[in-house]
Each structure stands twice: as C-alpha cells, then as structure tokens.
C-alpha cells in the first residue's frame, strides 16, 4: 500500500507539473485577480467596481537583449476595455494599473493614453478594441550607455568657480561610477498596435529591470499574451 501511495503521489506531482507547463503559468511570477487558460489567455476575475480592483499580471523575467518585446491581443474588451500593457519594476503594487505608479510605463487601450509613473496620462495612440494586437518593448540598440558623452554634457552644463575644487569631495572614480549608473538606466520604450509603431518614450529603467505586465479593470476582459513573439 505504501508503494502504491508513493506512486500515486509522484504521478500527481508529475501531472501538476505538466499542467503548469501546458498553461504557461511558469512564465508569470505574480498574478492578481487573473486566471490563465489555454496556455496564453489571461482573464480578469476581479469585481471591476473601483480603481482598487485592478487585476495585475507580471512576467517572471524582465525584458533583455534576447527577449526585448511582448504582445497581447484583445480577445474580449469586456465592459470598458480597461486593459493596459506595459513594463513595471519587480515589486510593483499588485492592485495598480501599469503606468500609474513609479517604476512603470504603460499604454492603456480604453483611451489610447500613455502613463509613465503617474495617474495622469498623455495622448499617445488610438483607442483599441476587440482583435487589436498591442506590443511593448525596449530598444536596447539605443541604450544610453555612452558615459563619456554624458561626462562632456555634464561638464558643459557646469558653472565652475575658484572654490569648487576645494569643496568638491567626490573622486574621479566616483564621478565615472555615477555617470555610468546614470547612463545605464535610460532606455527607450516603444509601443505598437497591429504591427505599427505608435511611438517611443525614453525613461529611467529600475534597478530590478522592466518586467512585462498586463492590467485589467472591467468585467469579462480577456487577452491572449505572447511573451516571445517573432516580430518586434
């Protein structure tokens, strides 16, 4: 009996692992008020009554030079199409739309606005509807990493005085390190709709990196997610 029990337990663990792989749940590290079905379908399960009812999903891994872009397709816009696609820092609040808080940037399908760490958005693209494919990525080729250029830029913007050298307590290594840090954090984030580039915003990337994220806020909203599309 003990052998049979162990065998059944191992089979259950194996089946659970297979189901997890089949559902792509391993691609997500955080999921709030969402269920994932058929491998790539994210469905909102929240109440959709107030702005505190945001459903939020964050991918397990941040974008990088290998996987720098992802897409969602609106399967069902629900009641209001309160759907957001964007990037968030690792510890982003689970009940806040991407773009609303610091360390995030997102395109919102209901009004076509872009939100960059603020609850106030700016006009960016068209409103979206059922069937639209929205994409978000980072142009790592345009990564602002030339700290030498930044050094000259900062030098040109400085006002020198006779007292500045004696009061300045940073070493040259500190300056270079600081400039390198500044240069590493500026990235160009772009968004697409149905294969067309909507535009680019240069933002500061959090130290944790930028994680693909999806937000929803009204009943029956549903999207298909592709974290590794061939295009983009």
TrEMBL record:
Pfam family, one: SPRY
PANTHER family: RAN BINDING PROTEIN 9-RELATED
Positions of the B30.2/SPRY domain: 1-232
Stated name of the protein: B30.2/SPRY domain-containing protein
Alphabetical list of SUPFAM superfamilies matching this protein: Concanavalin A-like lectins/glucanases
Source organism superkingdom: Eukaryota
